[in-house]
Amino acid sequence: MSTPIIKVENLVKRYRELVALDHFNLEIEEGEIFGLLGPNGSGKTTTINCILSLLSYDKGAIEVFGKEMHPDSYDLKRKIGVVMQNVAVFEELTVYENIGYFCGLYIKDKALRKQYVEEAIDFVGLNDFKKFYPGKLSGGLLRRLNIACGIAHKPKLIFLDEPTVAVDPQSRNKILEGIQKLNREGATIVYTSHYMEEVEQICTRIAIMDKGKNLAIGTTDELKRMIKKSEIILIDILDISEEDIAAIRTLDHVYDVSFKDHKLEILCSGGKHNLLRILHYLESRELSFGRVYSELPTLNDVFLEITGKELRD
Amino acid sequence: MIHSFIYTLKCLMRQKYQLFWNLLFPIALGTMFYVAFSGLASDEAFHAIPVAVVLKASTEDIDYTSTIPLLSASADENNSFDSVISSLSESGGEADSFTSIIDSLSEPGDDQFLETTYTTEKEALSLLQQKEIVGILYEGQPVRLSISTEMTSYKLEQSILNAFVEQFNMNYSALSDIAMNHPEKLAAAAKALSASADTGADYNTEITYAKGNMDEKLTYFFNLIAMSCLFAYSGGLQVALHNQANLSALAARKGISPMHKLISLLGELCATFVFHFFCIFVSLIYLILVLGISFGSEGGYIALAALVGCIAGVSLGFFVGTIGKMGEKTKYGILMAVSMICSFLSGLMVGTMRLFVEQVCPWFNHINPAALISDSFYALAVYQSHDRYFENIAILLAISVILYLGGFLMVRREKYAAL
Ligand SMILES: Nc1ncnc2c1ncn2[C@@H]1O[C@H](COP(=O)(O)OP(=O)(O)O)[C@@H](O)[C@H]1O
Ligand SMILES: [Mg+2]
């Protein structure tokens, strides 16, 4: 196996008494879109800032591109692009100038810089807003500008810290598509979010974190396979007796049944044809039922099962 | 570095509050000072003062039982010029020079000083009673002035006349000489006389004529420029905030770029100097060329003082900006207060403040940047030698260097405990 592009070992970071990162471990391979998924305050931003050597940490080791990362690792920093959680642009500079400024911190050659700036503007779809000042941009467009500033210099490794917070759905989709495009063009992506749908949609691998700990890591399917629940069956039904519920609970692969508001919820783990088996039982008991749904577990279910709480805020 | 320089300059030029405080504000305040001062002095100077002149020939027996309470003013009877004057009076040129001076001061025009009526004493007294005139000038040795104590709203005119008579009597011989030998220069001499009467009456201060005219009012303008220099703190503060990752998102963003911190810092500081120096320069040009304020003739030294003033102002903002984790607003407030206090103590609002400080704690004037900057201009305008000027400049530079070093030590840090 090649050396990971990012390697974090036993990272401990305290803000006074608060332990923000608690023996955090992470390995990211080249070419991934790696998702850091966790609720607000779980330590995603802290992790990124530690990796970038902006924050000091109490314990642990961090390697980027196989080398130890320091504030003066300029050769490493040159290959990294960061889109920070807080929009960081100059109010006094236009869209074009902002991107030009940040790109210029990395690219000395003027002609090349100009070309890169144009490409970045194209990439985030701000062509009509080149001469706009940030104050005049809507939230979504501002985020896109922030992204353009972070990636204009074509870095090999890109960190995106919650780039879609407070963004309209149209901008959000554009951003997600863009991230996948960057990845196809060869960049490794580290993407943090507390929206599981997004992470599920674009990430090749995901780490679920909470309270500064890395709780689980793997592809979406791997994560879902880690938990007991594999299928949720919902059936609209007018009434059902306690005996029938108990009987359903004894069926193969069913591990929990509940009935509330005329809705029967059956949780199954593994196995095939769970739905069919349950419908057969209902028919044999001559119980009439309405609509039937079958759902696969989401990352929220994964999170719920690991931490005992919902991921959604 | 050039990259940072260019973009910082762009930002500064587009910040409306920077342009307001550093360019419009000094110009507006300078104009206000100008209008206020000219309101005091030239308003009255431009309105000729109505007087009656009683020549010796028409002097009758004076009726001192007149109902008007009169004050008679005259120069010291034991004037050292006495002998000269009496000899002059023998020659008969006396009357000629007196009337010709009065006449030249009464010539209609923008700078007409007197509005003269030649008349008899009786007539003059009745004019004074009717408040048609402010005073009566009696030709004589010395010239005497009578004014009415009832005309309290004409205090200023009265004191100007009084000062004029004093000046006239003191310079009698010189004036007579001019009147007799160089009559063509009489008008200019008379004008100088009326002008000095004007200022003398207004300010009752001793005027230093070490090198050209040094007017008390000028120090207000020097202090104004000093204040503008201190206002450069806003630029320094911004540089500090934009380079410490725990103070702004922009600084954090820059911190992760491969640009060396000191290099971008230098570029930004240079841009800030240039911007503020430009603002001061424009303000100076405005004061000198448009308002006609005299900063002396040594342009290079004036510019140097302004530049050093800017460097000191930026250093102040930079240093305060780098210390502590207080928010931008707090730091801005602190700096605003510091610069206003410094300007106040250097005499921006109350002209005599600096003298007061000089008496109470003299060392403060030597470390107060506002006082140092305005004193540099003062030294240029007043003193022949540049010793005091260079002393001020040296202290300013020393203070700046200390503040920059302190600031650099603070921003040098590259990893933060918290953002
Ligand atoms: N500057 C700071 N000072 C003190 N505590 C902080 C600071 N920044 C973050 N924290 C705390 O550290 C924890 C992790 O924060 P963060 O990394 O920002 O989480 P996330 O990015 O996942 O929302 C939170 O509990 C937060 O309150
Ligand atoms: Mg965060």
Radius of gyration of chain A: 24 Å
Q: Structural class from helices and strands of chain B? A: mainly alpha
The ligands bound in this entry are: adenosine-5'-diphosphate, magnesium ion
Which segments of chain A are poorly predicted (pLDDT under 50) over 5 or more consecutive residues?
none
Count of DSSP helices of chain A? 11
β-strand amount of chain A: 25-35%
Largest interface: A-B, 30 and 27 residues
Element-level helix/strand string of chain B: HHEEHHEHEEHHHHHHHHHHHHH
Shape of chain A: elongated
Oligomer: heterodimer
Q: Determine Rg of chain B (CA atoms, Å).
A: 29 Å
Share of residues in helices of chain A: 25-40%
**Could you spell the SSE succession of chain A in H and E letters?**
EEEHEEHEHHHEHEHEEHEHEEHEH
Continuous helix count of chain B: 18
β-sheet strand percentage of chain B = 5-15%
In total, the number of strands of chain B is 5
Average pLDDT of chain A: 90
Mean pLDDT of chain B: 79
Salient structural properties:
heterodimer; A: 313 residues; alpha/beta; six-stranded mixed sheet; four-stranded antiparallel sheet; 11 helices; 35% helix; elongated; B: 419 residues; mainly alpha; five-stranded mixed sheet; 18 helices; 5 strands; binds adenosine-5'-diphosphate; binds magnesium ion
Describe the protein's topology.
The complex is a heterodimer of chains A (313) and B (419).
Chain A: E1 6-15, E2 18-28, E3 33-37, H1 44-51, E4 59-64, E5 67-68, H2 74-77, E6 80-83, H3 95-104, H4 110-124, H5 139-151, E7 157-161, H6 169-184, E8 188-193, H7 196-202, E9 205-210, E10 213-218, H8 220-226, E11 231-237, H9 242-249, E12 254-260, E13 263-268, H10 274-284, E14 289-295, H11 299-307
Parallel strand pairs in A: 3-8, 3-9, 6-7, 7-8
Antiparallel strand pairs in A: 1-2, 1-4, 4-5, 9-10, 11-13, 11-14, 12-13
Chain B: H1 2-14, H2 16-46, E1 49-54, E2 70-74, H3 82-91, H4 93-105, E3 114-118, H5 121-129, E4 135-138, E5 144-148, H6 155-170, H7 172-181, H8 186-203, H9 216-230, H10 233-241, H11 249-255, H12 261-290, H13 299-322, H14 328-345, H15 353-360, H16 362-365, H17 369-382, H18 387-411
Parallel strand pairs in B: 1-3, 1-4
Antiparallel strand pairs in B: 2-5, 4-5
Helix pairs in contact in B: 1-12, 2-8, 2-9, 2-12, 4-7, 4-8, 6-8, 9-12, 9-13, 9-14, 9-17, 10-12, 10-13, 10-14, 12-13, 13-14, 13-17, 13-18, 17-18
Bound molecules: adenosine-5'-diphosphate (ADP) and magnesium ion.
